[in-house]
Amino acid sequence: MDIEALKRELDGIRIEDNPAIVQQRSRDFYWYSPVLKRQLEHVTGDLIVSPKDEAEVVRVLAACFSHGVPVTPRGTGTGNYGQAMPLSGGVVLSLAEMNEVRAIAPGRVVCGPGAILADIDRATKAHSAQELRLHPSTYNTASIGGFIAGGSGGVGSINFGGLRDFGNVIRLRVVTMEADPKVLELSGEDLHKVTHAYGTNGIITEVEMPLAAAYDWVDVIVGFDRFSDAARYGNALACQDGILTKLITPVAAPAPWLYFKRHQKFLHEGLSVVVCMVAPHALDAFRAFTRRERGKVIFDASLVEDRKGLPPAYELAWNHTTLRALRVDPSITYLQSLYPFPHQLDLVERVDGLFPEVTSHLEFVRFDGNITCFGLPLVKFTTEQRLDEIVRLYEDNGCPIFNPHRYTLEEGGMKQTDEIQLAFKRRADPQGLLNPGKMIAWENPGYDYRSGKTFLFKGLER
Amino acid sequence: MDIEALKRELDGIRIEDNPAIVQQRSRDFYWYSPVLKRQLEHVTGDLIVSPKDEAEVVRVLAACFSHGVPVTPRGTGTGNYGQAMPLSGGVVLSLAEMNEVRAIAPGRVVCGPGAILADIDRATKAHSAQELRLHPSTYNTASIGGFIAGGSGGVGSINFGGLRDFGNVIRLRVVTMEADPKVLELSGEDLHKVTHAYGTNGIITEVEMPLAAAYDWVDVIVGFDRFSDAARYGNALACQDGILTKLITPVAAPAPWLYFKRHQKFLHEGLSVVVCMVAPHALDAFRAFTRRERGKVIFDASLVEDRKGLPPAYELAWNHTTLRALRVDPSITYLQSLYPFPHQLDLVERVDGLFPEVTSHLEFVRFDGNITCFGLPLVKFTTEQRLDEIVRLYEDNGCPIFNPHRYTLEEGGMKQTDEIQLAFKRRADPQGLLNPGKMIAWENPGYDYRSGKTFLFKGLER
């Protein structure tokens, strides 16, 4: 890699080559996983390049292609799986500057890939009381392009399912990695080619996302003496078609008391909770339903006058639950499980209960038209072997694990080749220069996902 | 009943006593049912009273109470079960004049009971791009109070379930029928006391309803050679959490060709269809999904320039399907069935298929958090005995029938006493003067719903 020659060719485009800064911006929240921490800690790019528009992206990709320099795209680096970490070095392509909100219409927003989710919502709310359908718990820091390329759902999935479901992304502009990069517009089923592909097969330069009505969501926490009651309540609430919520998150005792420090005065050690976001106009119905289900509202933001210092509900949920636990107890890590419908409640009790070191944390979602839940169970980490054993037992019991301790698309996902993404990569990145090492199907087409081993990208061999 | 004395007491309140007009306004669309047509044709009130505000409602009720005159409330008379027909004569209380839209806020509208659904939406759309969550196919003529008191769901139920689900009505003001009528505000679980009670236990004088984001819904019709494929497609579309629709209505051949006259040029005799309303920003995804499912879009309002004379999609659906069939073939009537989740598709095929005189018509909805469908099968009527036999066979096969050939709450509903409504009626209408004959539990507490007989209100005996 002739980085110096590349730099000369990128004259006029913003570049950062201070090694300390480059290393810092070559990382994401991979350290949530002790496994990824060990594997990826040394990873760094050679150069951060920050194009300000699509024309500059095209220039960067053409130059990198001609020099054979890998390019790993990055939004704000809030992923947890090393999605944006440059395993083969080279250029980290920061899309953070391309953060304009370009157009807002009923049900739609068009923006640059680097726009921060909360900033998009501020613009769409001010324009027409609209907001994004889905966001991760890193709402205030994550970029929309990074969310699409590296995320899968989150807050709002209780209403709209996942990011890869038809309709949850409207359109993407994508630049290919070729001598003469092409700009493609993708919509409909073509979106699947690049959503959740970690930027391995094209660089997103514009997104068009669906919007929903924006409300001043009210954070409410409901307490239960038994976690099974909390889970059952969460499931029943999610099945209330007329009660508009945006988040339904059961967390088992003692995690709320131990880790939700700023809410501690509302909690006690034995309390399991369900963290909710409720539309203001649904509050009466929510309260009546909760009373009927014998849930105890222990926190209702609409009734608590002094909320200073309290994080929003979504920062107690999804991967922020893990973050809060990690801050208190660095030996905590997590898994991501699906409890398939219609057996979700039984499976939670049975499978989470197999492991003394697991504390249940659920996220209710719509999934293929049904209400079910994902789990982000907190796991007290001992060894990688034990973690793998836990993963295996979840899967043996019928709960797929989306393993957050793997940096490849396949191992963190469906454990099989995504033929559509692979075919698209052949066209869009024929030299395999985009985010190398993340798509096993590309690196090692004959890889056996049932080997029980972890894929090791050759670029990481030391 | 001393109607003349009552009239004097109502001085200053708008009254109509022309017998022809009174009879006309004592009717609803009960004639969809040949059974109700026979039973109720002679029903008429003595007087139409049209209060202009709540104070006048209170005056009317007090006066009627003191004279022992029955009061049957009425919106615009678009019901199908004689809900608003005064079985014991007396006053028909028209709430049509109380049609003001009083307040609009994010997620909420407050209005009088007589406000027409389409008029409410015109106001809320102009105010803040919002619209009602649910409406019947009689959107352009039905009143909100009548919908709440006599309806159960409709267009939009695919997103929000039914009217009686928590959250689909926010608040009601209700006037009781006593010497000194009380004005009550009901919310939360108390709403159940008066929703879908046909006005038997209080007169609604104000409603507060939840709103959703308003869109310029696009009418699309998808065609299939086999009805089972249409039903399967409708179910799969309903399970697409990211594709925002408001209506998913499969109708079996040859009904579309025979009865959707204005759309006939898009149809042919053997074509079964799925009538949809799709949000504009979901169209790309809808089309991609429909292609994948091998559905053929035979009508897309966004691509048809001359739509003059074409009714909106919702006027092909719910009970407008029946109406269109009736207009062509007066021997057609219908039933209302539920195909319980998760066996809805099998049940449709099995149960509708039992009867040569039944043509399938489904409406996909959310029901307790699941996607399933109601049926409004078109039935070629021969005799009441045969109709009862069909009802029995539906129920024997596990498909509850909400019988539209009965004028009582119980027989058209759950075939059991609604203890909450009955208890509330004891307080709110101690003399049983509100819409007599509609609540069996009141008229005949010992009634045996399993007798197989039809309840005959004594006031209808001749």
Automatic annotation (TrEMBL), chains A, B:
Example GO BP: lactate catabolic process
Database matches in Gene3D superfamilies: 3.30.465.10
Statement: the UniProt record of this protein carries the keyword Phosphoprotein: no
Transmembrane regions: none
Transmembrane recorded as keyword: no
Assigned keywords, A-Z: FAD, Flavoprotein
InterPro entries assigned to the protein according to its UniProt record, in alphabetical order: FAD-bd_PCMH, FAD-bd_PCMH-like_sf, FAD-bd_PCMH_sub2, FAD-linked_Oxase-like_C, Oxid_FAD_bind_N
GO molecular function, one term: D-lactate dehydrogenase (NAD+) activity
Superkingdom per UniProt: Bacteria
Span of domain FAD-binding PCMH-type: 41-214
Pfam families: FAD_binding_4
Entry protein name: FAD-linked oxidase
Lineage: Bacteria, Pseudomonadati, Pseudomonadota, Alphaproteobacteria, Hyphomicrobiales
